[in-house]
Specification:
InterPro entries: Cytosol_ACT, HOTDOG_ACOT, HotDog_dom_sf, Thioestr_dom
Strand content: 35-45%
Number of domains: 1
CATH topology: Thiol Ester Dehydrase, Chain A
Family: Belongs to the acyl coenzyme A hydrolase family.
Structural class: alpha+beta
GO molecular function: long-chain fatty acyl-CoA hydrolase activity
Radius of gyration: 16 Å
Protein name: Acyl-CoA thioesterase
Bound molecules: coenzyme A
Pfam families: 4HBT
Length: 133
Amino acid sequence: MNFHTRKWVKPEDLNPNGTLFGGSLLRWIDEEAAIYAIVQLGNQRVVTKYISEINFVSASRQGEIIELGITATEFGRTSITLQCEVRNKITRKSILTVDKMVFVNLGEDGLPAPHGRTEIKYIQDQFPDSAVE
Ligand SMILES: CC(C)(COP(=O)(O)OP(=O)(O)OC[C@H]1O[C@@H](n2cnc3c(N)ncnc32)[C@H](O)[C@@H]1OP(=O)(O)O)[C@@H](O)C(=O)NCCC(=O)NCCS
């Protein structure tokens, strides 16, 4: 699983209990997963179709640095299925897991379109000249 994006938990991300608000976390993970799907499928027109159970494993607090991880677990005909985890960057303690997020590849007509992809492509393979950290 690749943990690309880091977030610094700030006051505006908190719920009234002073811990990270679930809605903020879901917004971040949906965007991160959408970007992953766009890159993997080589198409900006992808939509979230399905999100399985979301397990808020542990709370995160203001000032913590967290990281968002995504990996593809299945390539369908028009869909891609992803697995997600959010964890504390320093302690690696798990904060959230989502077993299944399904994104659908759309054509110009807005209907599901075959994407032709069958396996994970790494940035280095897609853009050989790019420097990846
Ligand atoms: C995405 C959308 C076009 C798909 O339409 P649809 O009629 O369900 O399309 P299909 O039945 O052809 O299914 C498309 C793919 O989604 C998969 N799928 C459909 N329903 C699913 C479900 N409940 N769970 C998991 N996968 C599902 C299908 O298996 C298929 O994948 P495959 O081609 O790899 O086998 C339509 O549901 C839609 O527009 N939904 C709203 C999306 C949206 O607004 N998202 C939020 C903002 S991004």
